Every structure is written in structure tokens, then in C-alpha cells.
Amino acid sequence: MMSPENDQEVRRARATETTEGRMFTVTGGDWDDMVSELSSSVGDNAGRDTGGSDDFSDERIIINMGPQHPSTHGVLRLILELEGETVTQARSVIGYLHTGIEKNCEYRTWTQGVTFVTRADYLSPAFNEAAYCLAVEKLLGIEVPPRAEVIRVLLMELTRISSHLVAIATGGMELGALTGMTAGFREREEALHLMEFLTGLRMNMAFIRPGGVAQDMPEGTQQRVQEFIDVMDKRLPEYDKLLTGQPIWKARMQGVGVLPLEGCLQLGITGPVLRSAGYAWDLRKTMPYSGYETYDFEVPTATEADCYARFVLRVAEMHESLKIMRQANARLSEPGPVMVQDKKIAWPAQLALGADGMGNSLEHIRKIMGQSMEALIHHFKLVTEGFHVPAGQAYMAIENPRGELGCHVVSDGGTRPWRVHLRDPGFVNLQAMPALSEGGMIADVVAAVASLDPVMGGVDR
Amino acid sequence: MSQDKQSEPGGATSVDSPASIVTGTTDDAAHQGGGLAVPGSAPELATGVERSGMFGIHGTGDTSGYGGLHRAPYVPQPADRPYGGYFDEVVDALLQAMSERGIPATAIEQITVAVGELTVYLQRDHLQALFWAVRDDPGLRFETLSSLSGVDYGEQVPRRLHVVYEMLSMTYRRRMRLEVSVDVADPYVPSAVPVYPTADWHEREAYDMFGIVFAGHPALTRILMPDDWDGHPQRKDYPLGGIAVEYKGAEIPPPDQRRVYS
Fold first, then answer.
1. Is residue A374 included in any domain, yes or no?
2. Residues A335 and A421 grouped into a single domain
3. Contact A407, B164 (CB under 8 A)
4. Which of A419, A427, A433 would you mutate first to test chain B, the one with the most B CBs within 10 A?
5. Residue B127 domain-assigned?
6. Per residue in A323-360, pLDDT tens?
């Protein structure tokens, strides 16, 4: 039907007749060139009553963007109806990264559930763990030791910084600000190095456990955290120099993707998107948990409700997170337990570094194998069968980098969750994509989606 | 595995009945709860399955001596006044808003307060009117539907499918849980989308995963699973794995039927 190899130049746009109608395949280039190429390619189809090749250039077309499109922030598929370059309707299709985390949790013990939920929103693993553990602890009716709370706060704020850095980095890349990306990932690497030092893993740490945290912070923690804060204090202002005042950056983001407050509340939007509309709703302040009420920090807000305001807020929030980290770091001087004292819940995790990596300490193994049969049984039962959680249900919401991360857990009194549901803010916020994009240009869709910062692992779970 | 049911009648003697799951007091408690609970509705709200034995082994396989243990299904307990905290205020405002809007008080099946959370079990009939009341009443002002999710309480449980609404009032900084239960054979629940547009995707997910049909939803289609998927994966009678998956013409066998190289 069409044979680009016969042409002098290889066409970037082609038309095919399918049973569903005429379908075009476009591989980039200028819009006007594309339209003229398509016109000529339709003209090639001699004898077809396509009704003249000129009148379709202003025809409405439906474009499928993704799920493998680099500008869609992961495997998100956008279906856009265009008139020229204006988006008249936009719909998103999700589910490409559905991994059945919630169902899988029902087949493992309560402690093992942490390993699953941490993989949901993979840019903010500490928050998934914390929301899940706080909900389980609510059902258990236990309170974790103060030091465990401090460690949790430290890890969560570190994760918030690394997550916001990715939001800015990938958002910058999608808008063509490639230096923003390299800078963002450079700083994120610092955050992940620190995370690895603190917990042993860069991401998906499963470090926060029901009852506390897996183990105490390693030696030299306070110094390493301070070094990280010093580095970030120096480098965060570079984002202002690089992006905040930059004319192209502002032109691409200001007045784009506007969602006013009433729209946010209707659509259940939380996080930086809600705060960019002027509402200082941050669960760390409004419904505190894990001792956030004892930290001194601000909740930055803006009133422009556009993509640029959300970017500025994310940078400001990183500064606030550093402030919280500095306070948490000071509190680490006070020693104490990091797990509840109830041996029916606390995992026997007397961990030590051996020749083959991290494992239970030789001392502990010697005791349970050689001296105490009961300790061995207890260890075995707790690890394989797990602990019982009283029947009932609980919902716990925390402020994750994207908004309210809720965890609804249901127990039937057994050692496995009956149901675990994650209310991921990415899932809810992504519903605002049509409201942000319709009526704008197609290039602004990319900016709007980037400002929502959905993480598909959390959206699809 | 030989299923010797000899120990079953012995299991019914209820060797162990913790105080927390005594079911005899539900009716008394219901009357103290302001007469809100519909008499006899409590057993229907059972949200657990009966269990006997300690390790799920019956007959001669169980040498532990724990085969006689019996645990009755869990039933959420109706709460007594005062509920504590802001819960009394919320329930009073809810009852008043309901009477103002002509919603019968029987729309509330039960009120439960557990782990510091207020749960209001509702009948589905007046659900949408209730949503409008909960959102717009000046004493309630639950502007946001934080989360909506389904729960399947298992095959033996009557009205096993529950829809859980986590309401958030930003004005008063309060939370409340609404819960509706339906049967698998009649899985219809009025949609919350006209009141809370954010419920759109939540309801699609609950439909996808549990087969709960939200009447009045603008486009109730699958959201996470492929459009032509059979069954609702998060129901309790749906297996974890074991589903043959077709991918580009090739039939991928379920995990237990694949080759093993060990």
C-alpha cells in the first residue's frame, strides 16, 4: 500500500488502512511536516475515496501515548484526543505494573508483609513500610520505643528527599532539562548511599518492622547523616540556580496543569498538588504520627496551583526534610531499644555481621542451639508461623512524598493478614490527569503528569 | 490426606472462648448503643471464619493435643455510649443530619469503636443520600473520601463482600469509617462517584478485584487486570497463582505445572 523504501527520503509518518479505520504511525518530527507527509501518503493510495487529502489535516485524531513512552513516568498509557495540538480529551490507562502485592500479603505472615508493601511505591519504600507497620501496631495495640520512632522519621525524611529528587529529575528530563536529571540523580545517589549505610539496602529495605525497626543504626551514623545534610545544604541551592529562575523552565511550567483547591478536594488530591493550591494540609502536622509533632518544621504552600508551584514546593520540602533529619540525628545520641520488648512480637534479630554476610549472631545461635530448647522453639515459631494479631481492622494514613498514603489492614486473629489495602496517593492523584491536561497543548500533558509525580509501582500495586 | 472427622464434634465443645469474642452479649450491647443496632443483625456482620484445632490438622495427624481448640467467627462488637473522643459528636451529627434529610435511623446497622477508630455499618439502600449528608452537613463535613476498598470475608460468611469507605474531614480533622456489606449473589452497592468524584478509580478497582458492582458508576470497567480477565482476583476463593496465562499465542502454564530443573 505504501512503500517508503521507494521514496527518496524515509518517511517518519505513515498511514495504514486497518479494519478499525485509517491508522497513522508517527515517529517524531515537526507537526507541519508530519501533516504534509501524511497528506502525500494518503494521496499515494490512488483510487481510494478518502475524499481529498487536505481536509483531514484538521481532523480530530486520537493519539496513544505509552505505556512505553519515556515521558509518561513509567508504564502509564495516555489516550489523547487532539484537535491540532490541543488536547480535547485525555484518559489514562493503568494496570501495566500490577503485581498483586495486596493478594500476596494474605499468604505470608504479618512481618513478611513488609517485604511486599515496600515494593509498591518503589521511590518511597520507607513510607510503605511505615504505613503498614503503624496500621499493624494499631491492631496489636502496641507502641514502639522512642528510638525506633526517631529512626523511622530519619528514614522517612531521607526517602522523601530521594523521592522528590527523582520527581524533579525525571520531570526535568521529560521537559528537556537534561541537566536537571543528571543533577537530581547525582544527589539521589548520595541519599541512596546513606540509605545503604543505614539499613543495608538502597531501596526496598523492609527495615521498618511491626514493633520497631529491624536493628539499631550502625556505628558512625550521626557523622554520616551530618555529612549528607552538609552536602545537601550545599547542593540544594543549585537547583534554584539551575531551574527555579530559568526562563525556559518557567515558560514550560507556569500556568500549566492548573488544578484549584475545589478540584483537588473533589478528586481527593493530597500532597504537594493540594498544597500548591494553597491548602496547608500535611498529615505530619494535621494528624501527627511517629512523634512528628515534636519536630520543628514548616509546611510550604503556594497559591498558583500550577506545575511550577509544585516544583518550587518540592524543593522547599526537601529543605524542611533536612531540618527534620538534623533534629532526628541529634536525638539519635540517646540510646535505647529499637524494638518492642514483647518477645511474642519482636523478631529474634540479634544480628551480627558474619563471614557470609548479615545474620543472627553466633552468640544467639549458640544459646538457642546449645542451651535453651524453648528459645529455639520460640525463634522457629515466630519466624515461620509469625505472631497473632487480634481480629479487627485498622486504617493508618501518613504523609508520603505524593500525599496521603493509607494502609487498611484486616485481621481475622491469625498470623497472616486477612486483607491489606494500600491507598496510594499516586493512584488517586493520577485521576486528576484529565483535569490538568484537557484544553492544553500536548506538550503540557507531559509537564502536568510530571507534576503529579505518579509512581506506577504504587499506582498499580 | 485422610480427613478423619472424628475430632470435629469434640471441637464444637468450645474449650477456649476468649472474652473478646463472646457473642452472647451482642444484643445487650446493641440496646445500650442508643438502639441503633437492628436486633438480630449482629450475627450477619460476622467477619471471620470458624476455626478449630491449632494447626489446621484433623484426626490422627494432630498429636499436639490442641485439636479440641475452637474459635468462633469474629463479630465486630457494637459500641456503647459514650464512644469517646469526637465519636459521640460525629454520631450525634450524623443522626441529626439523617433525620433532617428523611433517612431512617435503621440505615445504620451497627456502630463499632475499635482501636481508636469509629466504624459505622450501613445498609446500602440509603447510601447515596447518606454520602450527601456526610459531605455537606455542617456538623460532619467529611469533604474527602480518603480511600475506598473491598474486603472479602470468605465463603462461609453471610454478606461476605464488604465495601470500606475511609472518610476524612479536613475541617474538623476527623476520620470515620463507613462499611457496607453485600452478598456475592447480589453484589450491588450505590456508587459514591456523584458525591465524591475521587471514588471513580477506587470503585473500578473494587469491581475489578472483588466483583462488587457500583450502581450508577459512569464507566465501571476493569482497571488493573486486562479487560478480558475471568474472575475477580482478590476474592478468597480465587487462587494465588495457578492461572494459565496466554502471552502472544504461547500458553504459559501455572507455576505448579512448570518444569523444574532441580
1. no
2. yes
3. no
4. A419
5. yes
6. 999 999 999 998 989 988 888 888 776 777 777 777 77
Burial (CB count within 10 angstroms: exposed 0-12, middle 13-18, buried 19+), residue B228: exposed
Evaluate whether residue A413 is within a structural domain: yes
Strand pairing of B188-190 and A60-65?
unpaired
How far is C-alpha A9 from the chain's CA centre? Answer: 43
What whole-number distance in Å separates Cα of residue A26 and Cα of residue A32? 12
**Prior bond to B82 cis, omega within 30?**
yes
Do A183 and A173 touch, CB atoms closer than 8 A? no
Same-domain check for residues A132 and A13: no
**By three-state DSSP, how is residue B241 classified?**
coil
Domain co-membership, B210 together with B86: yes
- Do A244 and A112 sit in the same domain of this protein? yes
Q: Is B232 a member of any domain?
A: no
Contact A410 B149 (CB under 8 A): no
User: Shortest CB distance from A404 goes to which of B20, B74, B146?
Assistant: B146
What is the span of the domain harbouring residue A81?
A: 4-93
The values of phi and psi at residue B144, to 5°, are -120, 135
- What is the pLDDT at residue B36? 38
Q: Is B223 helix (H, G, I), strand (E, B) or coil?
A: coil
How many domains does the structure of chain A reveal?
A: 2
Closest CA to A445 of A123, A149, A71, A93: A71
The answer on pLDDT for B8 being more than 50 is no
Nine cell digits for residue A317: 520540602
A261 vs B: CB within 8 A: no
Q: Flag whether A153 is in a domain.
A: yes
Inter-chain touch A423–B197, beta carbons under 8 Å: no
Nearest CA in chain A to B114: A392
Are the C-beta atoms of residues A178 and A172 closer than 8 Å to each other? yes
Tell whether A104 lies on the interface with B, counting CB pairs under 8 A: yes
pLDDT, tens digit (0-9, with 9 covering 90-100), for A15-53: 677 776 777 777 666 767 777 766 665 554 444 444 444
Please check whether residues A34 and A132 belong to one and the same domain. no
ipTM reported for the complex, 2 dp: 0.81
Amino acid at A149: E
Asked if residue A277 and residue A176 are part of one domain, the reply reads yes
Count chain A–chain B contacts defined by CB atoms under 8 A. Answer: 115
Closest Cβ opposite residue A95 in set B196, B202, B223: B223
Phi–psi pair at B105, nearest 5 degrees: -65, -20
Report how far residue A408's alpha carbon sits from residue A418's, in angstroms, rounded to the nearest whole number.
Answer: 11
Does the distance separating the beta carbons of A431 and B146 come in below 8 Å? no
Residue B64's domain comprises 1-75
Task: Let me know the angle formed at the C-alpha of B32 by B27 and B33, rounded to the nearest 5 degrees.
Answer: 95
Place of cell 494535621: A286
Q: Where are the beta strands (DSSP E) in A246-333?
A: none
Candidates B166, B222, B234; nearest CB to A406: B166
CA distance B92 to chain A (A): 23
Kindly report the nearest CA distance between residue B48 and chain A, in angstroms: 6
- Whether residues B47 and A412 touch (CB distance < 8 A) is answered with yes
Are A45 and A106 found together in one domain?
no
Is the CB of A423 less than 8 angstroms away from the CB of B71?
no
CATH number of domain containing A334: 1.10.645.10
Q: Cα(A182)–Cα(A170) distance, rounded to whole angstroms? A: 9
Q: Is residue A159 part of a domain?
A: yes
Last residue of a domain, one of B75, B91, B106: B75
